[in-house]
Amino acid sequence: MFIDTAKIFVKSGNGGNGCVSFRREKYVPLGGPDGGDGGNGGNVILQADRNLTTLLDFTYSKKYSAENGKDGTGSKCFGKKGEELIIKVPMGTTIKDVESNKIMADLAHDGDTCIVCRGGKGGKGNYNFATSTRQAPSFAEPGMPGEERWISLELKLLADVGLLGFPNVGKSTLLSMVSKAKPKIANYHFTTLKPNLGVVKPEGTPAFVMADIPGIIEGAAEGVGLGLDFLRHIERTRLLIHVVDISGIEGRDAVEDFIKINEELKNYSVKLWDRPQIVAANKSDMLYDEEVFEKFKEEVNKMGYKHVFKISAATREGVDDLIKEAARMLSTIPVKDLEINEADMYVEEEKRFTYEITVKDNVYSIEGSFVDRLLQSVNVYDPDSLRYFHKVLKNKGIMDELKELGIQDGDIVRLNDFEFEFLL
């Protein structure tokens, strides 16, 4: 089974909590704080692997989580870092953030990696908060939570040559003749329902990969039929072989078919439409009039396509010359990575703790991620910890902001479930 799209949920590990501990040893009466830091949570990493060919595994397993960091312990022992989770995907996989629909990475080469979720940072142990005036801090930082998101995976095949054309024009037959690939071949439309890859080894030239992809029909650029599935997989190809049935046995006009396919390409991507094409006039063994090919070639030449070959994939007539020309053209076309617009790229936002102050009936409510983290870090019933709490509010500029908002002596400041009276 060939699966080329998937959507999965990924979550990195939470950071471990810092430890509150004091050194207690015989003959060391004033050991002081020695709580260690928590370990960082593990990242979630996607890695391209040449041994994978489809995204089938992600059909059955949808959720992936990295390991949490361990909590710190006494004697300044740091918690263990969470293990990273490495998820293997096929080469040619594009990763998108589902919420923003932005591209996070394009893993085109074996071993390419992308961190899709970064692990939470471990919290600091209480020994970090010791000062000359606060020699026995009884608080520590909690670990930061890990990131989580839904991501979509889209496989775009890594082929040098893509076979282009309507269904049932002989693309699968051509691939089976020039490589060891064994695609399903039959005389009905949409025989090819999944892409097939084959390695072509022309004599005296480097081998290249050819892709036989589901046939394209009118409206494919808008998603009609298997159109978008087809077009996705020819985005990476350097050269297109446009296979056309010139036999006329199905009552189709070869020139019209040629024009329609190229219009669909242009609607989908101008860059794809502008890619070099070799035209393969197939099923020539079934021609009733040899002038049909000459007229077809003349019309195609007028459109600017000079590489036109008369072939029969079934009898192999003209196939060797076609493949030699494809190999020659590939030698002049550099390998390029998939082009991605800057506007479509995902930009990782810097993590910031924020807050918002609202005023109602002389009650100043402060809410936000900054407040949540601060309250987790301190023990408001411990004098030392409470002094640290007020110092953080002052250093953050919250006290000055409250004064600018007109707070008076005796007004209430509320942070989630904790309240205190404000004193100037």
TrEMBL record:
Keywords: Cytoplasm, GTP-binding, Hydrolase, Magnesium, Metal-binding, Nucleotide-binding. Coiled coil: none annotated. Its EC number is 3.6.5.-. Residues 345-424 form the OCT domain. InterPro entries: G_OBG, GTP-bd, GTP-bd_Obg/CgtA, GTP-bd_prot_GTP1/OBG_C_sf, GTP1-OBG_CS, GTP1_OBG_dom, GTP1_OBG_dom_sf, OBG_GTPase. Belongs to the TRAFAC class OBG-HflX-like GTPase superfamily. OBG GTPase family. NCBIfam families: Obg_CgtA (TIGR02729), Obg_CgtA_exten (TIGR03595), PRK12296.1 (NF008954), PRK12297.1 (NF008955), PRK12299.1 (NF008956), small_GTP (TIGR00231). It comes from Clostridium ganghwense. It comes from the Bacteria. GTP binds at residues 165-172, 190-194, 212-215, 282-285, 312-314. The keyword Acetylation does not apply. Its cofactor is Mg(2+). It is found in: Cytoplasm. Residues 159-331 form the OBG-type G domain. Pfam families: DUF1967 (PF09269), GTP1_OBG (PF01018), MMR_HSR1 (PF01926). The gene is obgE. An essential GTPase which binds GTP, GDP and possibly (p)ppGpp with moderate affinity, with high nucleotide exchange rates and a fairly low GTP hydrolysis rate. Plays a role in control of the cell cycle, stress response, ribosome biogenesis and in those bacteria that undergo differentiation, in morphogenesis control. This is GTPase Obg. The keyword Nucleotide-binding applies. Residues 1-158 form the Obg domain. Mg(2+) binds at S172, T192. Monomer.
